[in-house]
Write a structure and sequence with these properties.
With about 240 residues, the chain is α/β, with parallel strands linked by helices. The chain has seven helices and seven strands, in the order ααββαββαβαβααβ.
Length: about 240
Amino acid sequence: MSNRLLALLKGTIFHPQWMTDRYHIRSKEVLKELRGLLVLDIGSGDAQYLRLINTSNSLFTLDYPVTNKKYRSAPDIFADAQYLPIANEQVDVVLLYEVLEHIVDMQKVLSETNRVLRPGGKLFLSVPFIYPIHDAPNDYWRFTQFGLSDVLARNGFEVEKLVVQGNTLAAALQMFNLGLLEVCRDLLVRNYVVGVTAGLMVYPVTIVVNMLAWPILNLPLGRAGSFGYFIVAEKSK
């Protein structure tokens, strides 16, 4: 399937990555509640969530020049998240959605995030746990909820909310879908016709897998595995 068609299907059960996408969408729903705040989105990409941000807020997007090239929209600020060009205690909310895994010195990013947040400021953070390498070669880390909570505490944050995204069974099914897509992409590089044929054969299988996963996604069992985590943390006073 073409990337354009997959983009149109994103967030629906007809997308091979629907299981993880639905949690990413849910983690951004909390942005609807923000009012009258200065919000900094680090690693903003295309900032597709903009419609969720109430106009009473002031939003600034920030991304790294090298990695932002693949996105259609430029951020308000080009900068390295390890060295934020922002004065101390100026920001009410920082967004770090699917960013930490792509930065070598993640502790430096969290330290900088803490520095620019006002006392009591909030950090909205999501990271992967069971997920393939992506945006290579800039993919360095995977996180458990315990390691993530510890590194946040050591950088001046108190975890208010931690959401485990999915469960072991759902993660296994999602990895199966992504594994099929990886095979198709490898075949596409070697032979276009073979790759397209394989994709057309595999796509219905991924939809069946999504349907099988639907009833088990939110079951509170098998939490040893998950897609990742969503955390709301507060800067320690």
